[in-house]
Amino acid sequence: MKILILEKEQYLSESKDAPEVGRRYFLEDAQTGSKAQNNTFHALIDCFYKWMLDSDNFVHENGNIIYDFSCPDAESLKKIFKARYGAGADYYKYVNDEFAMVQAKTRVEIPEYAWESFNAGNKHRVEQVLKSWGQYTIQQRTHLIDMTIKIMDQCGCDSKKYFIILEGMAENDR
């Protein structure tokens, strides 16, 4: 249900379903995204990770694109998707040459020596701090969910749970 508050105790229903008398509702700002989007994204990632575990294949090729989603758990897969296809980093942290942790807003601000050490295997020298889901705009959330579905389709995800999630999304759009 989607409503627009006009005045105190007055609203305009912006979707087919109207509120029912005696039923309680939680209102959230439609401009900043929804709990439903959060639940959908997490359900898709969990479903995709389980499908990859079951198929024992974390690397998929589609045309000239190779998707490498090798990771130890669904939480790591979520971070991969947020970094590659979502809003990306909020900021970066790196260890400088005096072994102090420094924050940088962009990758360009990080000195070359930190990247060289990172590429040589010292993985804790540079860290990307991802934007939290709460900082995403509704458009960014929608884009990430759409990209997740597109990639799952391209990789051939055909689990029953995946189709149930898609069916539920279609029902909510009506």
Provide a descriptive summary of the structure in words:
The chain is built from five helices and seven strands, in the order E-E-H-E-E-H-E-E-H-E-H-H. The chain has two domains: 34-86 and 134-173; 89-130, no CATH class. The mean pLDDT is 84. The strands form three sheets. Strands 6-5-7 form a three-stranded antiparallel sheet. With 174 residues, it is α+β, with helices and mostly antiparallel strands.
Summarize the structure.
The chain has 174 residues and is of the alpha+beta class. The chain has helices spanning 35-55, 74-84, 112-119, 138-155, 160-173, and strands spanning 3-7, 10-13, 59-62, 65-68, 89-95, 101-104, 126-130.
Count of domain modules: 2
Form type? flat
Number of helices: 5
Count of β-strands: 7
Q: Approximately how much helix is present in the residues?
A: 40-55%
Output the helix-strand order.
Answer: EEHEEHEEHEHH
Instruction: Report the radius of gyration as a whole number of Å.
Output: 21 Å
Helix/strand/pairing category: alpha+beta
Key features of this structure:
three-stranded antiparallel β-sheet; alpha+beta; 174 residues; 5 helices; single chain
Helices and strands, with pairings:
Elements: E1 3-7, E2 10-13, H1 35-55, E3 59-62, E4 65-68, H2 74-84, E5 89-95, E6 101-104, H3 112-119, E7 126-130, H4 138-155, H5 160-173
Antiparallel strand pairs: 1-2, 3-4, 5-6, 5-7
Helix pairs in contact: 1-2, 1-4, 1-5
